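Colleagues,

For the teaching module next term, I've prepared a clean inverse folding example: a structure given as tokens, and then the sequence designed for it. I'd like students to try predicting residues themselves before seeing the answer, so please don't circulate the second half yet.
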């Protein structure tokens, strides 16, 4: 579709580069087919060297893409607005050429100072207003086109009589009957902008200078080239054309033609060495032929090559008119050097994890805010990036850049897997995990219900793959996670925590303290435990197999129960167990030892000597309190010393009478406690 127009637009875009009107991708050309209501425009952000005619994008006047694999230029809405409002234009060009941009950035019209300008436009090149904040934040590119149209309407300028405009703080737009004419107008705009600047500079040296073209002269030059009766170029009369040709031929014949070469021509440039910054480096040139200063565009033309990138740039002087041949002068564009201030290195992830292979993080490398390309602008080398710890990446400039900058990053251990938990006994459990290589150790965390989070429990060595927890609280859910860590410069850096594992510790074994029968009431007492409640099981079967009945105690603080309306004179056998609830399920602890209703908590009587000895009585009370409540189960051995413990003054024991044998008596610490036994 529109293949011929695509080719024209493509070639016109390349002319922008040829004429030095653009660098990088800073420009675009479009052309319109009015009959079909379609236009063709350069794709967005594609380097000119890589671009093909087939890459051109076809759009309709509603802003819809009709054909093309790539996105159209970001300036497409501006072009579209100009096509909608300027009916007679056939192509639009936008550049950021330096001379025109300079006037735009200054907010100045390019005034007409001579006939060169007059041959181009019949008025000053207008500089339209800058866009408001609302216009910029809105449809920026579309509003740019609207501002251009607004400026021409307010000033009463016809777009065909002034094929160019500047946007304040932005740059130039030009147009023409076809893409090539629009590019030609962009080139002319750049030249008249340059001439206008130089004119004002020269005029500033003389207070009596007289700049500015008379209206009659401006009109004359514009009309002779663009007016109804224009005669500039091949449209003039054959007679006049012949006369002009004859005169030209005579002059050419009369003059000697001189060839420029290295022997007779000296090129002097304003700067021999530049530093790359992404902008064109075109030094001012003076050309001397056998010591005589020549004039640009009169005796010679200039062509620059390789004048943007680092390396060897060239300016070629080519003779024109009475001069032929060419001479080239080289100059240097040095790479710019990286340092910690102008180079920014960021990673796409804040946490980099080691997964059994060297870590190569995705990086964004920017030089003074400009995103660079790896292996084009820089190369990358790593050190210590094959294990958890502190690694280093070194960015070394290539091409347009030199020097290097290093940046460190932390590699974390990987997540601990294969975590499990096994109950070892009533109050112990072991957490196990899969080994993680190249770490300093592990942290095991336990769940804290009060904080609703996992908190530190213990550390384990790098060789450990399990940890045994003891003295776990009964009637409670115990949850754990494991994290591997690497110690770097004295600080621990942790990997992702494992999945949680849990174990529920059942209530402890219950202990009956008293079972008695009075009339028809069975009185049962037990020791308090950490639990949700208790279950009393009783029967008249001494083997505890038949006729079992249960009583539920839902209050965990209750330690006794009277079971009424039982049969008098019957002997009852009793056990008790505690229970806890986890996830709605009751979990029971072990049953107590069985006791019968004939059980009594009175075990013996004793008689004590020296009953009036206050200290001896104190010793008896302390020892009795230690033993009180102790249950000796059938077959169990009672250890008096173990239960009572050591007898020291710090525990309140006093000196009192002690039997030494053979009716001997002496004073000793804790005297009299044998009476307790």
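(Answer key — instructors only)
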């Amino acid at each position: 579709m529109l293949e011929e127009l695509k080719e024209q637009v493509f070639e016109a875009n390349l002319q922008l580069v040829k004429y030095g009107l653009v660098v990088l991708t800073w420009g675009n050309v479009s052309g319109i087919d009015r009959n079909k209501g379609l236009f063709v425009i350069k794709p967005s952000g594609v380097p000119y060297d890589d671009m093909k005619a087939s890459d051109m994008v076809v759009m309709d006047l509603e802003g819809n893409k009709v054909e093309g694999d790539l996105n159209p230029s970001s300036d497409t809405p501006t072009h579209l607005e100009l096509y909608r409002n300027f009916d007679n234009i056939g192509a639009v060009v936008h550049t950021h050429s330096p001379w025109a941009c300079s006037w735009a950035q200054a907010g100045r019209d390019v005034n007409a100072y001579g006939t060169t300008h007059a041959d181009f436009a019949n008025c000053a090149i207008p500089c339209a207003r800058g866009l408001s904040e609302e216009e910029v934040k809105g449809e920026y590119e579309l509003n740019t086109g609207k501002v251009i149209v607004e400026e021409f309407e307010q000033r009463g300028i016809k777009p065909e009589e002034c094929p160019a405009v500047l946007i304040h703080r932005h740059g130039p737009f030009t147009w023409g009957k076809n893409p090539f004419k629009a590019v030609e107008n962009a080139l002319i705009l750049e030249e008249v902008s340059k001439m206008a600047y130089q004119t004002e500079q020269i005029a500033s040296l003389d207070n009596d200078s007289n700049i500015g073209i008379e209206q009659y002269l401006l009109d004359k030059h514009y009309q002779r080239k663009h007016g109804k009766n224009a005669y500039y170029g091949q449209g003039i009369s054959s007679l006049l054309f012949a006369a002009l040709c004859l005169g030209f031929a005579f002059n050419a014949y009369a003059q000697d033609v001189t060839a420029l070469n290295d022997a007779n021509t000296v090129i002097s440039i304003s700067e021999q060495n530049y530093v790359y910054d992404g902008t064109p480096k075109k030094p001012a040139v003076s050309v001397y032929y056998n010591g005589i200063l020549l004039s640009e565009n009169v005796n010679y033309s200039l062509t620059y090559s390789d004048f943007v990138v680092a390396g060897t740039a060239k300016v070629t002087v080519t003779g024109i008119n009475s001069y032929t041949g060419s001479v080239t002068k080289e100059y240097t564009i040095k790479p710019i050097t990286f340092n910690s201030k102008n180079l920014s290195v960021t990673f796409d992830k804040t946490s980099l994890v080691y997964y059994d292979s060297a870590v190569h993080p995705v990086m964004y490398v920017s030089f003074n805010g400009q995103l660079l390309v790896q292996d084009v602008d820089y190369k990358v080398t790593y050190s210590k990036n094959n294990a958890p710890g502190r690694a280093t990446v070194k960015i070394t400039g290539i091409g347009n850049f030199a020097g290097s900058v290093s940046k460190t990053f932390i590699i974390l251990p990987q997540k601990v897997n294969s975590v499990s938990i096994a109950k070892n006994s009533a109050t112990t459990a072991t957490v196990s995990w899969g080994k993680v290589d190249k770490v300093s150790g592990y942290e095991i965390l336990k769940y804290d219900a009060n904080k609703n989070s996992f908190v530190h429990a213990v550390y384990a060595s790098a060789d450990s793959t399990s940890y045994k927890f003891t003295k776990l609280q009964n009637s409670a859910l115990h949850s754990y996670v494991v994290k591997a860590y690497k110690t770097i410069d004295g600080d621990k850096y942790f990997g992702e925590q494992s999945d949680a594992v849990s174990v529920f510790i059942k209530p402890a074994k219950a202990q009956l303290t008293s079972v008695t029968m009075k009339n028809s009431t069975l009185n049962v007492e037990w020791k308090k435990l950490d639990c949700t409640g208790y279950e009393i099981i009783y029967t008249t079967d001494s083997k505890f197999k038949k006729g079992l009945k249960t009583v539920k105690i839902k209050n965990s603080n209750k330690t006794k129960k009277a079971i009424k309306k039982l049969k008098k004179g019957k002997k009852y056998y009793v056990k008790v167990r505690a229970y806890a609830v986890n996830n709605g399920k009751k979990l029971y602890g072990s049953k107590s030892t069985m006791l019968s209703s004939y059980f009594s908590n009175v075990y013996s009587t004793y008689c004590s000597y020296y009953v009036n000895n206050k200290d001896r009585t104190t010793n008896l009370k302390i020892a009795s309190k230690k033993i009180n409540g102790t249950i000796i189960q059938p077959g169990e051995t009672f250890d008096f010393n173990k239960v009572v413990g050591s007898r020291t003054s710090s525990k309140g024991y006093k000196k009192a009478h002690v039997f030494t044998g053979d009716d001997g008596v002496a004073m000793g610490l804790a005297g009299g406690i044998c009476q307790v036994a």
